[in-house]
Each structure stands twice: as C-alpha cells, then as structure tokens.
Amino acid sequence: MGRVKIQIKRINDRQQRNIAFAKRKNGLLKKAYELFVLCNVPVALILFSPSGKLFVFYAKERPEEIICKFLARAVRTRCVQKPSAVTRVLTMGFEIEDEIEEVNARLAEVEKQLERFLEIPDQWESLAELKRREEDFQKTLDIVQSRKRDLKPGNFVSGIKKFLRI
After folding, report:
1. What pLDDT was estimated at residue 30?
2. DSSP letters of 58-97?
3. Packed helices 83-117 and 155-164: angle between N→C axes, nearest 10 degrees
4. Vertex 133, ends 132 and 134: CA angle to 5°?
5. Where, if anywhere, are coiled coils annotated (predicted)?
6. Greater confidence, 106 or 97?
7. Which of 10, 40, 42, 99 has its CA 20 to 30 A from that of 1?
8. Is the dihedral of CA 59, 61, 62, 67 positive or negative?
9. Chain mean position to CA 163
10. 32 near 59, Cβ under 8 Å?
11. Taking Cα atoms as reference points, which of 82, 100, 79 lies closest to residue 147?
C-alpha cells in the first residue's frame, strides 16, 4: 500500500504544525546534506520554526559567503520563481553595493585624515591647527562609532527583515 497524498495547506493545529515542521525540517536537512556530499556544492539552508527559532545548515561555505555570491551574480542569471522577492533581494544587493562605494569613499577620506594624526605632535605649529586636528579627530571618532553601531549583531538581520518586510 502506498502513501496517502496529503493536501498542501496550512495546518491549523499548533501542535500538529510543530510536528510536521520537525519532520519536514529533518527531511530537508538530510536532502541538503546529500546534495552537498553527492555533488560537492556549497549548500546553505536557513529556516525559522513556527515558534520563531532559527535553524541554519551549511556545508562547504558559510551562508554569508553563499548569499554574497548570489548577490554578485548578474541579474539575468538570478531567475527565481517569485519575482517580487527576487526584485527586493536584487534591489537590496544594489543598495549594498552603493553603500560599499560610499563607505570606501569615506574610508579614503578618513585614511587621509589619519595620516595627519600620525605626524609628530611637536611639529604642529599653532593652536588653530591643534583645534582643527581635534575637530577632525572628533568627526572620525563619530564615523567609527556610527559604523560600529551599524555592525552590531542583530542590526544587519533586522535591516534585512525590515527591507524584505518579514
């Protein structure tokens, strides 16, 4: 006797939904592992349970590296079934590239300012120059602190969730 074909729809009973998630998650993890072993390809699987718990599986490369490779691909090679989700991811990728360019420009400016700070302080000639250097140092410190806040754990994920409206 064969298996009974089930109708694919949302399971209303919370307990049954959790049971189905656990079983299907294990099956999906097994398939992802088999794909990695048999084909030697990078695999990343990110799941959230019905209760919101995060499950991450990856093989060969970290999920971040795989996502970066995906975002680096040409637009025409990223065909996925859901155009709206793809559009949001692609837009996010382009926004990230633009932000990287801006950050690189700011980094070059900060490095130029840093070169002035590496000079010997005894060579600074006037109080006005010292004040200017102090202001430059404060601006640089503000930039570093701002970037540090942006890079704190959770900010990147919450930014992606907000962008994808999850």
Report:
1. 92
2. EESS-HHHHHHHHHHS-GGG---S-HHHHHHHHHHHHHHH
3. 140
4. 90
5. 93-147
6. 106
7. 10
8. negative
9. 12
10. yes
11. 100
Structure tokens at 112: 């130029």
How many residues are listed for the chain in this entry? 166
Model confidence at 1, pLDDT cuts 50, 70, 90, reads low
Which residues, 6 or more positions from 95, have their beta carbon under 8 angstroms from its beta carbon?
none
List the structure tokens of 134.
């102090």
Q: What is the pLDDT of residues 12-43, one digit of tens each?
A: 888 998 898 999 999 999 999 999 999 998 89
> Could you give the 3-state DSSP secondary structure of residue 11?
coil
Token representation of residue 71: 């975002």
Beta-carbon contacts of residue 119 (< 8 Å; ≥ 6 apart): none
Q: Measured between alpha carbons, how far is 146 from 114 in angstroms, rounded to an integer?
A: 17
